[in-house]
Amino acid sequence: MRAHEAGALHADLGRRAPAWLRPPVDVNALVPELWPATVQRDPAGELTVGGVPVGALAAEHGTPAYLLDEADLRARCRAFVAAFSGSDVFYAGKAFLCKAVVRIIAEEGLGLDVCTGGELATALAAGMDPARIGFHGNNKSTGELARALDAGVGRIILDSRQEIDRLTALARERGLRPNVMIRVTVGVEAHTHEYIATAHEDQKFGFSLASGDAFGAASRVLTDGVLELIGLHSHIGSQIFDSSGFEVSARRVLDLQSRIRDAYGVELPELDLGGGFGIAYTTQDDPAGPGELAKRLAKIVEDECETRSLAVPRLSVEPGRAIIGPAVLTLYEVGTVKDVDGIRTYVSVDGGMSDNIRTALYDASYSATLASRTSTAGPMLARVVGKHCEAGDVVVQDEFLPADAQPGDLVAVPGTGAYCRSMASNYNHLPRPPVVAVADGRSRVIVRRETEDDLMALDVG
Ligand SMILES: Cc1ncc(COP(=O)(O)O)c(C=O)c1O
Fold first, then answer.
1. Is the Cβ–Cβ distance between 68 and 434 less than 8 Å?
2. 77, 115, 389, 420: the active-site residue
3. Whose CA is nearest to atom 10 of ligand 1?
4. In this structure, which of 69, 199, 273, 371 has its CB flanked by the most CB atoms within 10 Å?
């Protein structure tokens, strides 16, 4: 028996939902903050993206599919560039990278962070100016570093003593003097999931400030004189809403900067405070916009520099999620609807943890809506699950969907641009979904759907 057939009252539904999630007054309504800018319902009630109804997109491209609202992405890029004018914005490609997105962010004036040879290859294949690329990673191989040097990558962010050895040797061999930054572990406990917090002491990234390793790394680079130390770098984590972590991080990094000046008479010209700016996945999230972020970060840096009589370095930031995350939704088709009596209704879709691992990995929260139509049925507390052989294969933990949701309906999940396709897998041999860019009433495939032939192509028997 379905929950609505049992005559469940809103109050009962509310009791089984998490405290923050209330049954909506109108189950068809879209909360604009959660959706890409051009998403709306057409007069018939169907969701449209970039002016194209989702039914038409599903018919042309199949489901599941990641739908990228190109106008939304470009607007986010522009907003960051405008807000951080006088600073540099590097898009963190790990959030999602393909050639079309590289071209879009480059056209909109952003630089690009990569952290593997594969990401670097994608950036270069798309024609990204290497001077506008930053190269990250805690275990860059000698081959990757050589490739970055040969390509003329603009900055390499040093993460270990061994990397300094490798890069110094490679630069000497080539007679090059590459720009480098030192990634500093500032000892900040960012308020986010443990797996995406990156500045507390006990983890793999960067040089520890507390142990003296960060100062030691700077001393080594300055003394050797082979690499050009342009600045310090700190990235405290991801999906962060509170600026206090950035404040502590800037204070500690600038403290190191003043110690370097005192010891070596060098004022490093740049400072990179990383990415990590949070986005809205549910109505519980209230992220600051780029304007507010830029103002806060600039003030923190100016104040801290004034205290230490330091020249204000040129600032850079590395947003990934905040650029691409909200610009994408995933479109699924419902396959089964199963009421687990008195508990909740499981709505199974044709993808799952292979296209969005974040719910299982980080206990991330998402929202969803019935996309192919509106409904006059009341709200039903649903869990949107995938088709994998795994009980933890959940896409959306809790959402109110119309009580008459049924097989064949399309369901849309917003906020899936970051760390979904980029972390997608072939678990259970599911071919990975395509990424389809939609703008001005037209769609184009920018990453095609995998096929079973693609799966077989790697299986050499
Ligand atoms: C060094 C660095 N910069 C930037 C980012 C991007 O973070 P976000 O996508 O949360 O903005 C990451 C993410 O892990 C990172 O490690």
1. no
2. 389
3. 276
4. 371
